[in-house]
Amino acid sequence: MGERRTRAEQAFRRARKCALACLERHSPSPVESRRQCSEAAHSAAEASWELPERNAQQLELQAALDELARALEGEDEQRLSSALARSSRAGNALGWRNTDTSAR
Hints:
0% strand; elongated; 104 residues; mainly alpha
């Protein structure tokens, strides 16, 4: 079970790091970069199904990661920032500390 939790957390961190990189660019991110980040967020949401917890925190993480993926598919930086903050809160609720909190 610990291995599944580790995989889910690593997928979450990859998606979050990618989204942060898109958000921190001063000009709109290239379409390909945002597409890859969206795929990473979708993968993280899928990986979260493997968490041993079956509770509201897990469901919130999945919803937050799905929202992050959708935000990455668009070009609204405010929506992306909001989705990134939501996913960070959801990860924190599971005990996953964010190492980089520079989201605007």
